[in-house]
Amino acid sequence: MKLSTTTGDFKVGLMQIEEQIHWISKTGFKHINLELSSDDANARLCNDDWEDRIVSIGKAMKDAGLDAVQAHSCCESLTEVGYDWMVEETRRNIVACDRLGIPDLVVHPLYKTGMSARAVYDFNKNFYNDLLSAVPDSKTHLLLENMADTECSVPGFASGYELADFLDWMGNDRLGACLDTAHINLNKPPRDNQYESIKALGPWLRALHVSDNFGKNLHWHSIPFNGNINFDSVMCGLLEVGYKGAFNFEASYILRNSKMPPTRRKEWTNPSDPNFVPKLFEPGVEMKVLIDQTLYGVGKYILEQYGVFEE
Predict the structure, then answer these.
(1) Alpha helices for the chain (secondary structure H)
(2) CATH number of 3-305
(3) Sign of torsion, CA 56 57 61 64?
(4) What pLDDT, in 10s, does the model give residues 99-151?
(5) Most Cβ neighbours (<10 Å): which of 20, 26, 69, 75?
(6) What CA–CA distance (Å, rounded) separates 54 from 61?
(7) What are φ and ψ of residue 219, in 5° steps?
(8) What are the residue boundaries of the structural domains of the chain, listed by start?
């Protein structure tokens, strides 16, 4: 099983995707999840130069000696952008994956406040059908991600069972699933079971977002063994369903940026030094590299324990 991590690990300031790729090449990872979602619109494919950006990103991966095993689409909410814009930007993300040879693109289901689970199903049926028809000849699979039933909630898409029900109902082999271990752990028992959700998804499962947390309504993505997820249950589930994708980390909360929820880091000025310049308010990129090197080592350890680590 290939080991990968997200370029989102290096969302530092206004760093562009090409720079993120450069820094990941120093961590030990050879495979990446190309994160096309960002708070900075200039880092996404939403400007007129989006096709030039695809070429630039491809060159950055080649120069760094990395390949993208999966990607993550824009995930703005419908309160931030309109439906038509979501379809258009996601279409550009699909085109990017086709041109860069990325097989899978995670696309969050959409949700409007107050929708019932049934209404969410109908709304997202139209959404994914619109995406499929927007690039009809695409080779990229569009993957739904489980969104939990507490934090980051989308009714009807919290567990592997629910994703499998929706995918069975859609019946389109260009669709698939991405299981997020942190989101599963946020679900109310008994729907917090990693093994059973993986088994329920079976052949629909094409990608992973691997991280750890403590559940309990706190949306968090940390390094394995820094929470209460049992990764034996994850690995056994993956092996029993014959999972063919990468063991992909989405554990970008290991080092907290100052503005990261649930609590912001307070600024501080030295009252004894009017020229004081803070040095430790934000973790530097060198710290990010160090943490990702550790993340790589932990991932390799997990896969080697089950005899499935692949360079």
Answers:
(1) 17-24, 50-64, 83-100, 117-134, 160-170, 181-186, 194-201, 231-240, 285-305
(2) 3.20.20.150
(3) positive
(4) 999 999 999 999 888 888 888 899 999 999 999 999 999 999 999 999 887 65
(5) 20
(6) 11
(7) -70, 110
(8) 3-305
